[in-house]
Amino acid sequence: MSIAILMPGSKGSFFTTYGDDADAQSTINAFLRAYQVDLEKVIIAKGFTTSGAYATYDEMTFAQKERSSLIMKPEIAFNIAVQRGMFGEKSKATVSGTVVIEFLEPMSKEKVWIKHFDLPATTQDVDVDILTDSRGRLAKGPDGSLRHGLTTSSRNRLLNDFYATAFKRIWEQLDSREIGALKKDADKLKSRTNYRAN
Description:
By secondary structure, this protein is α/β, with parallel strands linked by helices. The chain has a single domain (2-191), classed as Putative neuraminyllactose-binding hemagglutinin homolog like domain (Double Stranded RNA Binding Domain). Helices cover 37% and strands 32% of the residues. The protein contains five helices and eight strands. Helix 2 packs parallel to helix 4 (152-173). The radius of gyration is 20 Å and the shape is elongated.
């Protein structure tokens, strides 16, 4: 049984806050690439073959869709709330997140199954500094004040901890018997879909 994997989507306050920071953007891109690769390893370890990752559903050719039993569409949300410490107190960051994995019937793009689970919130001590934008300039808020955010080392530590927690839950939640049973539902949808090329 072959599962095509789409590139993971991302949302949440971490990605919106640090998306303009050049250093953070490279970390985010590495995070999403690793997420896609490790998700593929999980699917293979569960006993399935994979193809992709495809940037979007529309990037897949007709033949690629036809060869796939299911399409996996993953999304990960990573939220972070930073509380700056005052006068010698440590700053703190609370991290939470959500993983959503959709399985689609390849020809109709109809959803066959959605696996959704929240990741537990954790709070840690962090270091905070002034943010810079993608051009290396000091980042300012709408009122002109300097924007503060996590240092690179704190940001990477939180992201790595979150990643490990997310994949522990993904491994637990993706049951090979449950995924295998989805093929029957996908086949029913496919049989009702007029997908043959004219």
